[in-house]
Design a protein that fits this description.
Layout (H helix, E strand, L loop, with lengths): L1 H14 L4 H4 L4 E5 L3 E5 L3 E5 L3 E6 L2 E15 L3 E14 L1
Antiparallel strand pairs: 1-2, 2-6, 3-4, 4-5, 5-6
């Protein structure tokens, strides 16, 4: 059933020319160099320090590692961080 729902959502996204991140509730990650990171569609901050950011997602979590990390803006489903970004991991 889950596979059928996923295929229907993908078909709908293509048919209506919608981004799949919107239809399938996936995170959208925009990175500028290794200095800025903008993440949309997260479900909350699990952990934050100057070396790590861990975000809950609807399906898994996202981990960002670096140095001198700072949250510049945080909203309900969006977060903008700056610093020296060294690693990003998506964990399903």
């Amino acid at each position: 059933m889950r596979s059928l729902t996923r295929r229907f959502n993908q078909f709908t996204a293509k048919l209506l020319d919608l981004p799949q991140d919107v239809v399938m509730d996936l995170p959208r990650v925009t990175m500028i160099g290794n200095r800025q990171l903008y993440i949309e569609n997260h479900r909350g901050v699990l952990h934050f320090s100057s070396e790590a950011l861990k975000l809950a997602l609807s399906k898994g979590k996202l981990e960002v590692y670096g140095q001198e990390l700072v949250i510049r803006a945080i909203m309900t489903e969006e977060v903008f961080i700056e610093g020296v970004i060294q690693d990003i991991k998506y964990i399903p």
